Request: fold
Amino acid sequence: MSESVYGLIAKFDTPEEVVEATRRAREAGYRKMEAYTPFPIEELAEILEFKPKIQYLVFIGGVLGAITGFALQYYASVIAYPLIIGGRPFNSWPAFIVVIFELTILFAGIAAVFGMLGLNGFPHPYHPVFNAKDFNLVSRDKFFLVIESSDPRFDKERTRAFLESLNPEEVTEVQP
Amino acid sequence: MAASTDPAEVPVLGPGQTYATVTDKITGVILTKETPKGWLVGFGIAFLIVMLMLFSLTVLFAKGVGVWGLNNTVAWGFAIVNFVWWVGIGHAGTLISAILLLFRQEWRNSINRFAEAMTIFAVANAGLFPIIHTGRPWLAYWLLPYPSMFQLWPQFRSPLLWDVFAITTYVTISLLFWYVGLIPDFATLRDMGENKVVRRIYGIFALGWRGAARHWAQYSRASLLLAALATPLVVSVHSVVSFDFAVSSVPGWHTTFLPPYFVSGAIFSGFAMVMTLAIPIRKFYHMEDYITDRHLENMAKVMLATGLIVFYAYIMEVFFAWYSGNEYEQFMIYNRMTGPYAPYYWALIFFNGVVPQLLWLKKVRRTPWILFLISIGVNIGMWLERFIIVVTSLHREYLPSTWAYYAGTFWDWSLYIGTLGFFFALIFLFLRVLPMINMFEMKELVHHLSHRGKEH
Reply:
């Protein structure tokens, strides 16, 4: 009946315990799992072998911003509304640098924020893990490790016994 | 980092703090039905001053910019002075949240949230002034490049247009950065709230944040990248503001050192405003464990350093006027020091150049009420500095036949004071509904400090 639950959740009191538990679960061969913490802990992402990809989006955003900045000013000053100002060429690019710079930052920043939200799947109002007992403490002072039932090694009894061996405060089921 | 392990130093966090105490203390301010009486009084006063601002704006829109003290000679008055002043104040927030994050300064964690709030509210006020200064604010969208039916396009070689892009980008990035920092704290408020409506509202803003390790990894990387983007941005914004002056050929404005001079002045005034806000807030909400004397001392040091740069710029202004051999530049400095605005000039030298020298003394840096007075003095001094830059250069320019005198009218002052009320009203609202200190970063700090304790 392992399909009837989303997974098993273990509750820990300290960040050190959840890091250690995640490492041991990884060594025991579990892959479909996630740790939940009140603040970022770098080791967890390393143990889960997760690498953030947001930087590629930010780079693309920045390049697009720079191109937009130059194209906009070139179109306005050379094609749509050419006007001689102080005897300068229409494409007086040194004067365009400031706006190119600002739009580079603007597009890259927007890519960073919305890219992060998108890659994390937000907004995500419902998630099974919110059903777990005491999970509202995850944003206060408790640390959680969930092993999902979709993991091939997941077995309700054996996984529970494994999680119990990691010295948690409590192990409970997560309803889907 | 070495300084914080020195036992003689005041720590960046009071003793006995845990993840739970940090969360409960900070959410306690918001998730309570009892609004403190002091808050109601403070917000009430600020709100009345907002009414003054709305009244001044109504008069301005009904009668036009003629109600101000502007004349043909001095066409840039209070509006530009206030614009530069407010933008400058905003810069400390970005500096604290972005630059100090890149330098991994842990003491920023407890002050960055309201410094960022201060940035957004200050820049909102700043953005108001150029728009109303155009005289026909309902046509302000003409500043933006769009395919209009007049077939006109903005002039991209003008610093005034660069300003439009710089300020718009700055507001957008500051707002996004602030919101991103708030997401995990919104989740905390959602989880801690007892009232269903409160939980629902904070839950919407939390977007379903659940503290997953993979999300945190993506989130931390994004925050770091945003900080790296905001750092050159903040330098560029006040540089562009200074181009409004430096690109012209007016004596006193046409100098190459204006960008660094403006940027350091902005940080100087911004830290003064953070101090002006932090000292009463930490006392009123009993946040001394989070905003410690160490924070005040560090901010005082930044103020001293940037104040010295600004003072150096005042000296260089005089030196270059003499060294250039240009008689218009020389007259501008002479007129500044002895002309009709001389009291303003000497007051600014006193507030920005002389008084901050007290910050050399450790005793002064450790005494909140003296710091509070110094910071108010710097706020005044920095406003006077912008007034001197704008007005003394314009009122006696090249042709003596155009010389004139400029002074703010009642409506100039009422609008300026009104924006101060608007600023403080927003700060009061912020303190009541949003966590004034970044909770997850404070918990990270608790975690790091406990680790450091074990290593010794």
Observations:
- Confidence is low (pLDDT under 50) at residues 1-8 of chain B.
- Chain B touches chain A through 64 residues (CB under 8 Å).
